[in-house]
């Protein structure tokens, strides 16, 4: 059997293990964070603080490069295993502004957006949004799971949010000192579409349950939203596939927003959480297994 390295031990690891094992791929966890990593001595096969294998020496292929890129460089040093989504894919998708600019340049509809690179004066922010209609969405350029995403109803509120970003960006250790301001799409339906090796393989709609929906507008699962499998039109399939092709990422979650007859690519995720298989197309795991095996054979 092929041995697949997976650097998360959360939902995705639990869900993919048995289906991939049925297809000749053994899934094991590689701990890439919250541990010590020997740099100058021979690395042990397991960390004393971990209950899982942390060496890449015996793996044939990896699913997604570690999300913490610094730790990833230390973990992968000296090991040339191929990754389905390598470091470049993770970096590409994590840069929301770069994704939006690339897709917009290719003629793919995305929310109207502007990137602010701190530090800037308030006048720069005001000029940047002069042609926007309030409210607007403010979000960190590199965060996930809806962390730090806010809605500002007027210029003073926007500048107040920016004040907090200025404080964060004042720390020299802060890596990404940029943020996005985007148009707000009211009452949008929020879809996460999975694309594997260029093909649509299923989608979920993310929606807050009625008990949480009052006064809230973000639909991240990690914020309490529920993900329900949906059968999307062909136009949605093609849009997600086109986005993945433009970015050159073989295993990608593509977030679509649909409102008032408009369909846009909002974000992408090269480290997508795998949902329950019943929410995807019947061939989801066959396609994923084929991509993993093709990647392994490419080394």
Describe this structure in words.
- Among the domains are: 2-84, Rossmann fold (3-Layer(aba) Sandwich), CATH 3.40.50; 112-183, Dna Ligase, domain 1 (2-Layer Sandwich).
- Residues 44-53 have low confidence and may be disordered.
- It has helices at 11-21, 69-76, 87-94, 96-105, 122-128, 155-169, 210-213, 234-247, 284-297, and strands at 2-6, 25-29, 61-64, 83-85, 113-117, 136-140, 150-152, 178-183, 189-196, 199-207, 226-229, 251-259, 262-269.
- The chain has a five-stranded antiparallel β-sheet with strand order 11-10-9-12-13. Strands 2-1-3-4 form a four-stranded parallel β-sheet, with helices on both faces.
- The protein is an alpha+beta fold.
Short description:
This protein is of the alpha+beta class and 299 residues long. The chain has helices at 11-21, 69-76, 87-94, 96-105, 122-128, 155-169, 210-213, 234-247, 284-297; strands at 2-6, 25-29, 61-64, 83-85, 113-117, 136-140, 150-152, 178-183, 189-196, 199-207, 226-229, 251-259, 262-269.
Q: Which runs of at least 5 residues are low in confidence (pLDDT < 50)?
A: 44-53
Please write the string of helix (H) and strand (E) elements. EHEEHEHHEHEEHEEEHEHEEH
Specify the overall morphology.
globular
Q: How large a portion of the residues is in β-strands, by DSSP E?
A: 15-25%
Classify the fold: give the CATH topology of one domain. Answer: Rossmann fold
Gyration radius (Cα, Å) is 20 Å
User: Helicity level, as a percent range?
Assistant: 25-40%
Distance between the termini: 16 Å
Structural class: alpha+beta
Q: Which architecture name of one domain does CATH use?
A: 3-Layer(aba) Sandwich
